[in-house]
Structures
1.
Amino acid sequence: MYNDKALHSGELEILSHFEKQDIKGSYELRNFIAHDYEGVDFTIVEAVIEERLPVILENTKKILDS
């Protein structure tokens, strides 16, 4: 899972700035799209992106500015 990879690659400090639900959701969404592309409901994907991406973007900007 993402936690194990993050621990081994030294990314845990960066990931600590994001909400766990955003990290987990991004990871799971990527896997779902990659492995079941034909079953993806893009209206749901769009809604998730519109709702959560601004939060993730804001956190990313804070990290880059610090």
Note: Residues 2-65 form one domain.
2.
Amino acid sequence: MITTCGLGFAAFRRRKNRWRKRKLATHPDYRLDQYDAQKRWRQKHPEYWRGYRATHPDYEQRNRALQRERNHHRRKDWGDCKE
């Protein structure tokens, strides 16, 4: 069981997220371990995102729109670098 030391759960989660962000930024071994764990999870659950997108069409539409915007900015930035 997770103890929150008298904190509300939201405050506990914020504190934990700050700790994790700091740990990822300052400990390369921890960062690599987290990356490897996430990679193993993705390999064990290859259908997860396909199912998520099928049940959350708003997420998919928003993501596609944001990706189009990122692609547009990337093309625009590279257009300035002609030889």
Note: The CA atoms of residues 57 and 72 lie 23 Å apart.
3.
Amino acid sequence: MIPNCSLPTIPFASKLLVDYVSYRKYYDTHYLQFIPFSKINEWIEEEVVTCGKSVLFADSEKIELQRQNFERSYPKIKFYTGKEPLLKDALQLTLYSSIYSKVPGLFQSITESGLEQGLCNNSIKAELKFVMNNTKKIIVENPARFANDGDKFKPQKLESSFVTLFVIMGVLTGVGIFCFLFEYGKGNGGRLVKRLLGWRDGVQVEIPKLRGG
């Protein structure tokens, strides 16, 4: 768990624990190792609910159950879970006492000040610059190889594009009419086809008569 709010912490000895040995001696001789899990869960719930910046890490199944429990207990608070799971054996830094360590505060300062995002952006810019420089270097070393690449892709003329569009529309229209006549060939469509064919035969028969007269 990564706490980001100032909540009550576990009480330690009044004197300063300057090294790991003194810390372990105090830990082994006091009640810290006998804290029940229910109390730890209460502290976790208090931290997550009170502070909107704390992050809880656990197994996917436990996280899902914990989220459902939080949503039932606190319907007015929105809880979010990460979409991409972390590695099973994630790398971590164990600190013997977060009270005397500056690492959590440094992490918080780096993330909240925007320094982490700035470093990420700078790394992306540096990588992009590296790729561009290498690309230019490759082109300079072998210019003949990339000189004729533009000739391989010839732009299409606007007039030919319009002609192609009209041809496609005509084909689609013809296919649509054929499907319509085929679908209704036994009904009104069939009678319509017969009338059209009869009108065509009548025109072909009467035209020679008019010319002969």
Note: The chain has three domains: 20-112, 118-148, 158-212.
